[in-house]
Write the structure tokens for this entry.
Amino acid sequence: MRFDIITIFPNIFHSYLNESIIKRAREKGLIEINLHDLRDWAGDKHRTVDDKPFGGGRGMVMRVGPIYRAIEDIKRKERRWSRASSKVILFSPRGKRFKQRMAVSFSELRQIIMICGRYEGVDERVARHIADEVISMGSYVSMGGELPAMLLVEAVARLIPGVIGKTNELKERVTKEGGFIEYPQYTRPEVFETRRGQKWSVPKVLYSGNHKEIEIWRKKHSKIIR
């Protein structure tokens, strides 16, 4: 799986990409993550990627030209992949809500190209003519698409075989509809006592050794994340 991230702030990603599971997955060759500075496609000496909005208004809008050229060049390097195995994603609070079943679907692709907006937004022609999907990570507005891109990488990468845990165990928790089964988890100690003398206990069934009863308990308390 290859992730291509287009941003004007590539340095934001460096610490994230070089820690923990994402770092190990990259080192194993399970995922490839490439950062692309949008200003490299600006086309002028000042590396300008934004301009004032038509119709007036506050702030600046990211121009369609640099984004178009960036996407064209990134795709040109990977002509071996069909359109069906690659998607271009634009992040926007007006987009479709990102859900677990989308992460499952994206994990079957070969390449995901992400456009990280900034300022007041991105020229609407990017959403209409360039992006395959316009996605929102929630009912809120962030300062840019960099954090949404990291969230998408996290959600999709963990579904790729070998990235986390045992492949079979991961498959068992994915439903046919693309949801993910989550249930409460506990670890030592069996009883935790707070400074106020409260005692928080682990359900006895989980350390009973009865695997059938544990499975029943987990099914009863599980929730499908869709």
Q: What stands out?
A: The radius of gyration is 22 Å.
